[in-house]
Amino acid sequence: MTTFGGGPTHRVTNQPPPLVGHDVAEDIPLLAALAREGAGDQAEELHRLGRLAGSAEAQSWGDEANRHPPVLRTHDRYGNRIDEVDFHPAWHELLTVAVRAGLAGSAWAADRPGAHVARAAGILVWGQVEHGHLCPVSMTYAAVPVVRTAPELAAAYLPGLTSSVYDPGLRRPESKRGLLAGMGMTEKQGGSDVRANETRATPVGGGAYLLRGHKWFTSAPMNDVFLVLAQAPGGLSCLLVPRVLPDGSRNPFLIQRLKDKLGNRSNASAEPEFDGTLAHLVGEEGRGVRAIIDMVALTRLDSAIGTASGMRAALVAAAHHVRHRSAFGSLLVDKPLMRNVLADLALESEAAVTLVMRVAGAVDRAEQGDEGERAFRRLATGLAKYWLCKRQPAMVAEALECLGGNGYVEDSGLPRLYREAPLNGIWEGSGNVNALDVLRALGREPASLAAYAAEIDAAAGGNRHLDDAWRRLRHDLAALLNADEPVELELVARRLVERMALLLQGALLVRHAPPAVADAFCVARVGGDAGLAFGTLPPGLDLDGILRRIPHGAV
Known about the structure:
This protein has helices at 28-36, 43-53, 56-67, 89-100, 115-126, 134-147, 151-161, 288-324, 336-367, 371-402, 414-420, 423-426, 431-444, 446-457, 464-481, 489-512, 515-526, 543-547, and strands at residues 71-75, 81-86, 181-184, 200-205, 208-214, 218-219, 225-232, 235-242, 254-258, 269-282, 326-327, 330-331. The protein is an alpha+beta fold. The mean pLDDT is 95.
């Protein structure tokens, strides 16, 4: 410390302590949802994961995995094609924890109710450490229902895909304790319009095909197997591509380059080329979209869960800062306007957590044969994916602003969260694709609308703003779906989905959150008595009751 004729010139004061050394799972709304949705017996496991997530060691893994992005090696020193991607050791540490905690495919093998709810809670907690490594975790989870429809492939691959062991390295599946799955759907000429795919699948007998073509976005290219779409003689089909062949040789999987992305830097997103690549048919020829639809639905739900996790991380960082930082004579958290901002962010985050945990509960109950829950999941997944992904970038930006200039510095962690924020809105179908998918469900699957309506009706009488908004939405839905003349539904799709999502969040909070939270959300989001920016909640709300539910982090 240097002094110049007076006091010290580098005395650090009025800075918050590091946000480490806490239990990320010490989260009132999350723990309540865990119990409510049927996995309360997994609370201690969640706390164990939460304590690791809040440790300095785990936080350093997330930082290092993003500061040292993966590196593509197309050839070895002798000129042999190897097509491998090297990851920083921190990436492998993150994946080891995630797979061991049951966040990949092992939920499907768990012989207990609530396995999918516990997994969702785990992603909400562990995702606050780092998001990129959750991509292979999510794809593995979502691949299991697809692979299990093909008995021979299921026998070969499901034991590894449902394992809780992370086993990196390209080897024959039977020699590995755990497997990870990826997906290769989109191509440069089609994007979300997968029916425009040009990759060809030529049958060679016994359900085997040879692929020739080029995929545009295939993340985690070091995974063991990939589900891809390709044009077979009978039309667009779903096929499984192993990275290593039964004789131990590499299947042609030529990685042309890795994407240089805005965020998600820890995760490799590749452009692979298939040239005589062995693949196995999953389902029937020409039924590729049908075969893959379960996978897409689950990865969309994971996009929503991951988004809620990122929102939670941003809220905790903002709250931690303002609880320790003083300005103009008092702590920031005691300033009325900052309290308004923080309470507004807290409402957004709690509504997101409550919604994704409810949908995860529907996955569990649908797996147990509940058709009503299956119908609810069909519609609610699209609503959650669309709306939460629209809200995350704005929320993270506002949370970053709570830290002022400190939030704009990499060491705070907020810049990484901000770069990550738009990702889930693009992955697994953009906002337009998801909004149109909700319209499709409304038009073709009346049971899904009935299940949604039952969920809103369960909150009837709990809040007048919610009741009034539901009355208007129900009228508008009936008019749109039963119009005598054709209605250009696409023009109103986004607004309709937004209203449906907000009402569903409001109904869940009215039923399950304290009045301070439910009333404020319904006034501000459903009743419209708030401005467009965060921090515009009207006077008269119980802000103390909202703020008390924000996780404290390190103190």
